[in-house]
Amino acid sequence: MRKIALATIVVATTAALTLAGCSGRTDTGSTDAPAGFDAGSVIGVALPDKTSENWVLAGDLFTNGLQDAGYEADVQYAPASNTVAEQQNQITSMVTNGAKVIIIGAKDGSQLSAQVEAAHDAGAIVIAYDRLILNTEAVDYYLAFDNFQVGVLQGQSLLEGLADRKGDKDAWNIELFAGSPDDNNAGVFFDGAMSVLQPKIDDGTLTVVSGQTSFEQVATQGWLAANSQARMDTLLAGNYADKDIDGVLAPNDNLARSILQSAADAGKDVPVVTGQDSEVESVKSIVAGVQYMTIYKDTRALVAAAIDMVNELQKGQEISEINDTESYDNGVKVVPSYLLAPIVVTQANAAEVYAENPSLEPLTQG
To answer: What pLDDT, on the 0 to 100 scale, is given for residue 35?
Structure first.
């Protein structure tokens, strides 16, 4: 995911920001800001299903924040029970309604190229939110937490948790889980974690008893807890009848809780399990000493950054907060990105991290 020389970046950015005759864009090259648009314009926000607490929160924040900034907010979700076609239709509708900026949290970033290209043809500016949109020039910006670093932190935390909770062993027995294969971030998280864990597997510090170590083997379709719990049940029954399972790389909190439930149902000691998203039930579990860690990615900060980007675009200004022009290659171009820093949360620092989050801070007290 991380490559490409500066000259290529300039060319790709020029292509993305240049479109003759379109109301929201300039045709004078990548060094010029977008042309700007009316302050009360429609801003589209296309989000995936509501399987994560953070997606639900994001929708509310976008609706209120864009309206407060004077825009007409068109915020839509793709139903969990539907295919990506629903999100494709929603983006098309936003284009028809004259959206000047379309912010997309992709349900499947590999299947939206036709829709974002149509948005570009209509003069809209496209921001990929949290999940990269693949295989198209028609993505202007990417806004997310540093997803590779999220995986790195999960891998490091798994090692630290094993040392802390499982003591010295010749090798710790672990299993690996990843997110959904239709979510580009899932592979990035996994690659980040494996950059830390693979050397320890190679030197014998860690043993993946099942032998399942490739992304394809450990992915969890749809990020569904039922799927991860079923796989964990199978792994325990087939590989751990006479062994302890010391740790599990889990990519998010929803799956982490299902994995912990499976271990409890099998009568196993609590393994060290990672997570991500700071979901309420997992924060409770971490404070209680069960789930080992999560990653805090403040959705409020991410949405606020997106609205700041919209405000700059509305005024015809260049985006001021781009801090990465090398890492996120979507297969056609390197997308200029604004990456926020993720934060590791354990029992030791939960109260401090969540001190300013009104929804989570009470869970860390007492």
So the answer is: 76
For the chain, domain boundaries: 6-139+298-341, 147-297+345-361
pLDDT of residue 1: 37
pTM for the whole structure: 0.79
pLDDT digits (tens, 9 = 90+) for 279-307: 999 999 999 999 999 999 999 999 999 99
Interatomic CA distance for residues 187 and 180, integer angstroms: 8
Length of the chain: 366
> CB under 8 Å, gap of 24 or more: what pairs does 261-268 form?
261/229, 262/229, 262/232, 262/233, 262/236, 263/232, 263/236, 265/233, 266/233, 266/236, 266/237, 266/240, 268/236, 268/240, 268/244
Torsion over CA of 52, 336, 328 and 134, rounded to 10 degrees?
70
Architecture category of domain 147-297+345-361 in CATH: 3-Layer(aba) Sandwich (3.40)
Low-confidence ranges of the chain (pLDDT < 50): 1-32
In order of 158, 194, 273, the CA distances from 172 in angstroms are 11, 16, 13
The architecture in CATH of the region 6-139+298-341 reads 3-Layer(aba) Sandwich (3.40)
What value, to the nearest 5°, has the Cα angle with vertex 299 and ends 296 and 303? 150
